[in-house]
Write a structure and sequence with these properties.
Elements lengths: L19 H14 L8 H39 L8 E2 L5 H10 L1 H17 L10 E2 L1 H9 L8 E2 L8 E8 L8 H18 L6 E6 L3 E5 L7 H8 L9 H13 L5 E8 L9 H14 L3 E7 L11 E4 L2 H18 L1
Parallel strand pairs: 1-6, 4-5, 4-7, 7-8, 8-9
Antiparallel strand pairs: 2-3, 5-6
Helix pairs in contact: 3-7, 4-6, 4-10, 8-9
Length: 336
């Protein structure tokens, strides 16, 4: 980690780095004092220069490759969203420090949501009993009491139901500006839970929107520190193109081959930005549901989610997310 320049330093107060000749002028008498000798090996120096050049070339090559991948991701979304109203397609700013700070505070809610969803997926699976995994104490007691020869008294933490793909869609419009911290916290909790639940780390993504469209984590990306930094850097501005965001996210989900595809929308559900946008949102939600994509709405301090989403929960902060989101997910699972 590093800090910005906060002023003059007490030790290294000069901005100009001494030249090689100046350093050697000081180094030579110092080596003589310690009985050492400064040797100049031209072959060794040439090797060091080539090594340095290779390292620099590798750094730039890695940076250019990452930029090409990111530009390809954005171009794919531009193509999918060619019929939407979004003014641009971008990656958000990055703030890894904010992410680390919030994760420290939210470790409890993250763990509770994760445990609840793991239990749900094992319980509602086709067969939640396994020959290995985590011991189910209640099941083991029943086997012993019945003197059964069964050994399938274990559950597994991985997904045991059908294979799923998730998109977490986040509203970063100006209407939620007063809840910036809550939005980041809610998204952080959902992202950490998804990362732990899904065996395939490329089966979920995080997208954000206002009148611009932001890619926080694409399906092709792993949950890296760069993605975490994007969560920490989320800022709120612009209007709320909610119908366009749902349409674009649904198109991205349609390209997935998983058995179940789920779109989790985090918003205040007050669309704005062009005429008849509320009616457009109603039609988009119906169209998305007809396409076989499950919708779960997370209303941030707003009951408007009830007007559009059948399966929903209303939360004011990340600490409420554990109980209410798990309940909404159980409702969604029961309807599948």
């Amino acid at each position: 980690p590093h800090t910005a320049n906060h002023g003059m330093k007490s030790v290294f107060y000069e901005n100009i780095i001494p030249s090689r000749e100046e350093i050697e002028k000081t180094l030579r008498p110092a080596l003589v004092t310690f009985g050492l000798q400064l040797k100049r090996d031209k072959k060794q120096e040439a090797f060091k220069e080539r090594l340095f050049e290779n390292e620099v070339a590798q750094v730039f090559s890695t940076w250019e490759a990452r930029k090409r991948r990111e530009e390809k991701i954005l171009n794919d979304y531009r193509l999918l969203g060619s019929n939407t109203h979004f003014s641009s397609f971008e990656f958000p700013e990055e703030d890894y420090t904010d992410y680390l700070r919030r994760k420290t505070y939210l470790s409890g809610p993250i763990r509770r949501i994760l445990n609840k969803l793991r239990l749900l997926k094992n319980r509602y699976g086709d067969d939640f009993r396994h020959e290995e995994g985590v011991l189910d104490l209640q099941e083991a007691i029943q086997v012993v009491a019945s003197k059964s020869r069964r050994t399938d008294v274990f559950t597994q933490e991985e997904l045991q139901t059908m294979v799923e793909a998730w998109v977490i869609l986040v509203d970063t419009s100006r209407s939620l500006n007063f809840f910036t911290g809550e939005i980041r916290g809610i998204v952080l909790c959902l992202a950490e839970v998804a990362n732990e639940l899904f065996v395939d780390k490329t089966s979920w993504s995080i997208l954000a929107f206002s009148n611009k469209f932001y890619v926080i984590k694409d399906f092709s990306e792993i949950y890296s520190n760069r993605v975490r930094a994007r969560i920490g850097g989320l800022k709120h501005s612009g209007v709320t193109y909610l119908p366009d965001a749902i349409t674009l996210s649904a198109e991205a989900l349609k390209k997935r081959n998983e058995d179940s595809r789920v779109l989790v929308v985090v918003s205040d559900f007050f669309p704005s930005g062009y005429e008849d946008i509320e009616e457009e949102l109603v039609e988009v939600v119906k169209k998305t549901e007809r396409s076989g994509i499950g919708l779960i709405g997370v209303g941030v301090n707003s009951r408007a989610v009830k007007d559009y989403f059948r399966i929903h929960c209303i939360v004011e902060n990340p600490y409420e997310l554990m109980k209410k989101f798990a309940k909404a997910f159980i409702e969604y699972t029961s309807l599948m």
